[in-house]
Design goal:
It is a single chain. With about 240 residues, this protein is an alpha+beta fold. The protein folds into two domains: about 60 residues, no CATH class; about 120 residues, Mannose-Binding Protein A, subunit A (Mannose-Binding Protein A, Chain A), CATH 3.10.100.10. The chain is about 55% helix and about 15% strand. The chain has a four-stranded antiparallel sheet, with helices on both faces. It has a four-stranded antiparallel sheet with strand order 5-4-6-7, with helices on one face. Helix 3 packs across helix 4. It starts with a helix and ends with a strand. The structure holds calcium ion (CA) (2 copies). This is C-type lectin domain-containing protein.
């Protein structure tokens, strides 16, 4: 290493003395590389110029920093693309709105048709309240027979759970002018009236003085006024089911 540096140093001295680099370089081309290495120690400014000559292109890439700005332009381009796509979607939105209005009209028509169909199917022995339908086939039976009848029809013995349902059920009772038995009883525990699924009732419409369990009454009937009475379970009632 030292041997290579020494000749280079000599060469550099020859450079300074000759001050004619054109004549010096052709003859010392093989050593020029070593000169460059050694020259960097002696003549740093030249080495630096050489280095700057090479990095300049990198310097051009350095302005890639400014390419960060073009990046923002790229974003603008993408925004412009979104805007243009948004604008292009406007006709589609209008088309969708038109389709929705058409579907809404069709839906209203279907609702009207369904309402008419329900009236036809329910009249004169059924009432719809909320999502529940009360309906009777006009048959009669005691509690157990009525319960079985409703199960066979895919429903359950009528069990009004609120004022609206009780009023709906009352309509059928008044139409037929027959008392109906409800899907409510206190067979399991006296005085604890339950729905058929065992839940304690959350709504009741007892007539005054009821329930009185007179003679061990564990079933419930609805009178034409919509009021409830506890009664024995082997009476005969109008069978009204709920679906
Ligand atoms: Ca009872
Ligand atoms: Ca009673």
């Amino acid at each position: 290493m030292d041997q290579t540096k020494n000749p280079n140093r000599g060469a550099s001295l020859q450079r300074t003395t000759s001050s004619a680099p054109r004549l010096f370089l052709p003859g010392w081309v093989p050593n020029a590389c070593t000169l460059v290495i050694c020259a960097s120690a002696e003549t740093r400014p030249k080495g630096e110029e050489g280095d700057q000559g090479l990095p300049r292109p990198q310097g051009l890439q350095g302005p890639a920093g400014p390419t960060g700005i073009p990046g923002s332009e790229g974003d603008k381009g993408s925004i412009g693309g979104k805007e243009s796509s948004g604008n292009s979607n406007l006709p589609e939105l209008e088309s969708l709105k038109t389709q929705i209005r058409g579907l809404e009209t069709e839906l209203e028509g279907l609702k009207s048709a369904i309402t008419k169909t329900q009236k036809v199917l329910l009249a004169p022995n059924g009432v719809m309240v909320g999502e529940k339908v009360f309906k009777t086939d006009g048959s009669r039976g005691d509690y157990h027979a009525a319960r079985e009848t409703c199960l066979r029809m895919g429903g359950a013995l009528a069990s009004p759970r609120n004022v609206a349902e009780n009023s709906a059920l009352q309509k059928i009772v008044t139409w037929y002018n027959k008392r109906a038995v409800l899907g409510i009883n206190d067979m399991a525990t006296e005085g604890r009236f339950e729905y058929l699924n065992g839940d304690v009732i959350g709504y009741s419409n007892w007539a005054p003085g009821e329930p009185n369990n007179l003679g061990n009454e564990d079933c419930v009937e609805m009178h034409q006024d919509g009021k409830w009475h506890d009664r024995g379970c082997i009476l005969e009632w109008l069978v009204i089911c709920e679906f």
